[in-house]
Design goal:
Layout (H helix, E strand, L loop, with lengths): L4 E5 L4 H12 L3 E6 L2 H10 L5 E5 L5 H14 L5 E4 L14 H26 L6 E6 L2 H5 L4 H20 L4 E8 L6 H5 L2 H10 L8 H12 L10 E4 L7
Parallel strand pairs: 1-2, 1-4, 2-3, 4-5, 5-6, 6-7
Helix pairs in contact: 1-9, 3-4, 4-6
The structure holds nicotinamide-adenine-dinucleotide.
Enzyme class: oxidoreductase
EC number: 1.-.-.-
Family: Belongs to the short-chain dehydrogenases/reductases (SDR) family.
Length: 243
């Protein structure tokens, strides 16, 4: 069964925002959280009257993740989709990281998805209900990154995906999307110029990767059309760094 009520983290901007619109267009109910309160307000205004719920929450906080999931599960016990989309990329070399920043990058990109996936599965599995989780990794997690922390956590997201696919089988499918350079996102604005040019040079296909195109792949993985996939990595990268 395709997911009908879907949690999307980081819905205020970029891929998350495009995905929220896409899922609403498909007639699904969407619950999103983000730290960007103004962005959530404009998202809610844009989709006024549609089945969208927004929460200001920081997924790097265990307390926030629990409070968010408490609210979601109380209001939407039928929830059957989770997209761990929110991510943090600082675009800096490893020697510029202090311990607090390392913890923050791990918190947003790894701990949040772990906590949310666990609560989601803990809700569905005892009832033997079907569902789908989609995680957002990156080409950086496959071939490395000029930001070593980002390359590390995105490789971790791929490992988390495959491992949770085993943990949550046979009821919850868990898959991962690995995008290349997505233009018109806050993250793309932070990529150093030389790396931006390298990514563009590596792409086999012409045209830019828009947030909507990555949202298409996420929507596919939430739908029945991907019913045979779990533990799978799908790329949205214009063929950059074939691997
Ligand atoms: N933009 C790219 O080029 C690119 C490439 C590969 C992978 N990705 C990955 O794709 C996903 C989406 O990226 P994007 O480009 O749309 O990013 P973005 O920065 O445009 O949007 C991310 C959203 O997540 C929110 N967010 C950040 N930290 C949060 C937190 N702690 N709690 C809740 N919300 C938080 C932000 O406020 C923002 O609305 C991320 O996981 C990212 O790492 C992006």
């Amino acid at each position: 069964m395709s997911a009908h009520t879907v949690i999307v983290t980081g819905g205020a901007g970029g891929v998350g925002r495009a995905l929220v619109g896409r899922l609403l267009d498909e007639g699904r109910t969407v619950v999103t959280c983000d730290i960007d309160e103004a962005g959530l307000k404009s998202l809610a205004d844009e989709h006024d009257g549609r089945p969208l719920e927004t929460h200001v929450r920081d997924i790097a906080s265990h307390e926030d993740c629990d409070a968010f999931m408490d609210a979601v599960l109380a209001a939407h016990p039928d929830v059957d989709g989770l997209v761990n989309n929110a991510g943090l990329y600082l675009g800096q070399p490893v020697w510029e990281y202090d311990d607090e920043t390392i913890d923050r990058v791990i918190g947003v990109n790894i701990k949040g998805p772990v906590w949310l996936s666990r609560r989601f599965a803990g809700h569905l599995l005892p009832a033997e209900r079907r569902g789908a989780i989609v995680n957002l990794a990156s080409v950086a997690g496959e071939v490395g990154s000029s930001d070593a922390l980002y390359g590390t956590v995105k490789a971790g997201v791929i490992g988390l995906t495959k491992s949770n696919a085993m943990n949550f089988a046979p009821y919850i499918r868990v898959n991962v999307v690995s995008p290349g350079l997505i233009v018109r996102t806050a993250i793309a604005d932070r990529i150093p110029d030389y790396r931006y040019a390298e990514y563009k040079r590596q792409e086999l296909l012409d045209g830019d990767i828009l947030p909507e195109y990555v949202a298409d792949v996420c929507a596919y993985l939430l739908s029945d059309r991907s019913r045979t996939l779990t533990g799978a990595l799908l790329r949205a990268d214009n063929g950059c760094y074939p691997r």
